[in-house]
Structures are given as structure tokens and as C-alpha cells.
Specification:
With 210 residues, the protein is mainly α. It has two domains: 7-104, no CATH class; 105-209, no CATH class. It contains six helices and no strands. The protein has helices spanning 7-37, 42-70, 72-132, 134-139, 149-163, 177-195. Residues 203-210 have low confidence and may be disordered.
């Protein structure tokens, strides 16, 4: 197979080859770096990188040979282009991989935070019973008394979790939110124990979180 020697057609053919070669070189190097950076183990990463490089060469070498058979200078140009694309991939891969990892971590954190938001709302509803229900206010006055160390710690935990905004923002991606909700749950359980709230007297089924 040879390429056309006519001007316009030859230019388009060379451009197509250049795009294929540059894309193959960039992609093979990028995915090789990605395999080497993965946590699959050295042998698995090296094996994946080998096949990435092999796949890239399987595209680049025939393209260079094909171009060289018609225009001797074209093979050299494509080779230089492939080398440049590979170097560009080496330089860009760390930044691209960091962005991908950040997006992945953000998605995972959002999922965790959505579950934490439901627990946050449940904990607040459980605590507000002591504030809003006259019966619970009378039976457990310590739950509203910030002079009690456990109650003061609970209020601080509530403010800390509220400050992260996850309870109302379903798109919250702050990794500190879910741990703050867990601390709030523990603080609520500690305050209830200090106030003498028995398991039978806890307001609602959500006391299981304590």
C-alpha cells in the first residue's frame, strides 16, 4: 500500500497519519504511566505498561513505514512528531492523573457525605426533642444545660458539623464532614448518658447510632 503523490491528497493523508501517530504516542505513554502509578502492584503495572507501549508501537511503526515508502522525509517527520507527543504525555500525565484521582475522591466523598447528611439530620432531630418537647426538657434538663461538660461538647460538635454544610448541601465534597457527623453522634450519646437517659427513654429509634 502506498500513498498518493498528488499535492492536496498527499497533504490530507499526511495530516491524517500525523494525527494518528501523535494520538497513539500520547495515549500509549499516558496509559503506561497510569498503569505504573496504579496500586495494582509492580508486576501488574509493568505488564500493563508493556502492552500500552506495544499497542502504541503497533500503530506508530506501520504509519511511519507507510509514509516513508512514498515520501522519505515524511517518516522522519512522523517519528519526530511521535517523540514529541510521547514527551508531552510524560510531562502531562502526572497532572492529568492527579485530576482524575481528585475527581474520583470527590465522587467517593460525596457518596459518603450523602449518607452522613441523613445521619446528621437524624441526630439533630434526636437532640431537638430535648429542646422542643416539654416532657423531655423536664425529664432531662442537663441536655439543655451547657454548663455540663458533655452537653457543651455536644453543642460544639453540632456547630462543627453544621459549619461544614453537609446537612443541607447534598453535593458536599468536604472529606471532614462525615467524621464530624460521627463525632456529633458520639457526643450526643455521651451527653445522653451523662444526663441519665436510659436506652428505653431515648427519643426515637436513632439512639442505636450511639
Amino acid at each position: 500500500m502506498t500513498l498518493s503523490l498528488s499535492g492536496a491528497l498527499a497533504a490530507w493523508q499526511f495530516l491524517a497519519l500525523a494525527i494518528v501517530v501523535a494520538g497513539a504516542a500520547f495515549a500509549s505513554v499516558y496509559f503506561a504511566r497510569k498503569h505504573l502509578a496504579a496500586d495494582d502492584g509492580p508486576s501488574e503495572g509493568a505488564d500493563g505498561a508493556f502492552w500500552d507501549a506495544f499497542a502504541g508501537l503497533a500503530v506508530i511503526v506501520p504509519a511511519i513505514v507507510l509514509a516513508s515508502s512514498t515520501w522519505p522525509w515524511a517518516g522522519l517527520a512522523l517519528g519526530m512528531l511521535a517523540a514529541g507527543a510521547a514527551l508531552a504525555a510524560v510531562a502531562a500525565a502526572p497532572r492529568l492523573l492527579r485530576r482524575q484521582e481528585a475527581r474520583r475522591a470527590s465522587r467517593e466523598t460525596r457518596i459518603v457525605n450523602e449518607a452522613a447528611a441523613a445521619r446528621h439530620r437524624s441526630a439533630l432531630a434526636r437532640w431537638q426533642r430535648y429542646e422542643l418537647d416539654p416532657g423531655f426538657s423536664i425529664d432531662y434538663p442537663a441536655m439543655s444545660d451547657t454548663r455540663q461538660p458533655e452537653t457543651a461538647a455536644l453543642i460544639r460538635a453540632i456547630k462543627a458539623a453544621e459549619g461544614l454544610g453537609g446537612r443541607t448541601d447534598r453535593a458536599c465534597t468536604d472529606a471532614a464532614y462525615a467524621p464530624a457527623v460521627e463525632r456529633l453522634e458520639h457526643a450526643l450519646a455521651a451527653a445522653e448518658r451523662a444526663a441519665g437517659v436510659s436506652a428505653a427513654g431515648l427519643p426515637g429509634p436513632d439512639h442505636a447510632h450511639g
